[in-house]
Amino acid sequence: MNGRRRVMGWGTLDCNNLTVSGARGGVTRDVTHTLQVSTSLGVSASLGSIILLFILWRLFKVTKEVVEKEYRKRFFKRNGGLLLQQILSSNKVSVDKVKLFSLTELEKATDNFNTNRVLGRGGQATVYKGMLIDGTIIAVKKFKVQGKIEEFINEFVILSQINHRNVVKLLGSCLETKIPLLVYEFIPNGNLFEYLHQQNEDLPLTWDMRLRIAAEIAEALFYLHSAASRPIYHKDIKSTNILLDEKYRAKVADFGTSRMISMDVTHLTTVVQGTFGYLDPEFFQTSQFTEKSDVYSFGVVLVELLTGQKPITLLNPEEAKGLAPYFITCVEENCVFDIIDERVMKEGKKDGIREVVNLVSRCLNLNGKRRPTMKELTLELEVIRKLEKKSNAQEDHNELVISEDYQYWDDNSTILEIKSVFDLSSRTPILEDIHSHTI
After folding, report:
1. What is the per-residue DSSP string for 28-81?
2. Where would I find the H helices in 350-373?
3. pTM for this entry
4. At a CB cut-off of 8 Å and minimum separation 6, what does 356 contact?
5. In this model, does residue 206 exceed pLDDT 80?
6. Percent share of the chain, pLDDT over 70
7. Are residues 400 and 304 located together in one domain of the fold?
């Protein structure tokens, strides 16, 4: 009646509680099932999201690679890659000597072209110092947007064919960028202009070093003019384009404006370009560049080495004095030794200096045909160097002989002579007696 029944042997059973208890058990099972379903759905949704994200990431990566590839192709064409391919296919360039660097590789090497890595800046390019993964130190030349792409192609083609110890070595290039890049061996001691005009007293530029550097530059230019597969005119010889390696050996650099010519060609008719102070006056007047134009520029570098002065002196904002014509004037007025560097006058032999002065005068002749060739200059500089070394060796030998004779004379002769004076005379010797016996 009241929801209670008696069950035999078991007492009473509360039917209401049984009903309620059954309901509660059903709810619990329903909640558990719902949670399980929700969890499964959540895991499935999360897994699906992860898969979707992975697919999107792969799609983005593939798309990015395709876009970058298209950009590289576009940059390759814009940077003269098609022209370069055409030149390479003509077998005019030895591609085995150069490597194709990736942009990523060079960015890592230069710390993303950090301004702290800048080695130098020019009108057409900036040079950065870098280090490859294998530890090789490099110099990366980054051409400017407004620069002429022909200069990049020209330098690449020329340096790919040159193999000379006194010419900077090209390691490779990169065309995957908006701005083309060239990669060179790193030359640690800067350029000749800096070393000459900002001298360190701890490591001065001696006369012997100046002669050696001059001979090395001459040898490199002789190689370019006569020994390369085709004659090459550098067209921008100056002290800032002469680099110095770890042993301060000269390395001719910057071939952006250089030209390779046929064997039967004697000159190039081209737009006048070059560096004021080094520019051949004859080229300036005729627009015809010859191998003797390089000789004139080399002569200006020789004047720098002789005098220690800069190629251009600014007397005032409106007037500039060229070192080359001033040097020739001093030669004509017989006062050239007044402008020779003090260290050169102190360390060099006057005859040797005079020989170099004569060489310079011939290099700076306004008539290009009367200038010597680089072969002649190379041979004559080597002769001057040998004579200087021979003279120095002879002087050292004479000093050694005098030193040995003096030591023996001081230890024995002087004492004996002084003693004889005392023995032969009863009077006290005076200074004149001693002097007359010892000279």
Report:
1. HHHHHHHHHHHHHHHHHHHHHHHHHHHHHHHHHHHHHHHHHHHHHHHHHHHTTH
2. 350-363
3. 0.72
4. 211, 214, 302, 306, 381, 384
5. yes
6. 66
7. no
Give the span between the Cα atoms of 278 and 239, in whole angstroms.
10
Query: Which residues sit opposite 7 in a β-bridge?
Result: 11
Same-domain pairing of 59 and 88: no
Question: In angstroms, how far is the first alpha carbon of the chain from the final one?
Answer: 160
Cβ-contact 214, 301 below 8 angstroms: yes
Range of the domain at 196: 190-392
Q: What is the mean pLDDT of the chain?
A: 78
* Interatomic CA distance for residues 143 and 92, integer angstroms: 23
For 6, list phi and psi in degrees, rounded to 5. Answer: -100, 130
DSSP 8-state class, residue 373: P
177 shares a domain with 323: no
Active site residue 396: no
393's tokens: 């060796």
Same domain, 374 and 424: no
> Both 155 and 210 in a single domain?
no
pLDDT of residue 309: 93
Signed CA dihedral, 336, 338, 342, 345: sign only:
positive
Q: How many domains does the chain have?
A: 4
CB atoms within 10 A of CB 422: 12
Residues 6+ apart with CB under 8 A from 187: 139, 168, 243, 244, 245, 251, 253
Does 214 share its domain with 331?
Answer: yes
Q: What is the pLDDT of residue 71?
A: 65
Q: Which of 137, 154, 186 is the last residue of a domain?
A: 186
CA triple 395-397-400, angle to 5 deg: 110
Name the catalytic one among 14, 96, 208, 236.
Answer: 236
Last residue of a domain, one of 377, 392, 407: 392
Spatial CA neighbour of 171 closest among 181, 183, 189, 160: 183
Which tens digits make up the pLDDT trace of 286-325? 888 999 999 999 999 999 999 999 998 765 555 668 999 9
> Residue type for 144, please?
K
- The token duo for 71 is 């950009």
Do 248 and 331 belong to one domain?
A: yes
Between β-strands 99-100 and 170-174, what pairing exists: parallel, antiparallel or unpaired?
parallel
Residues 239 and 376 in one domain: yes
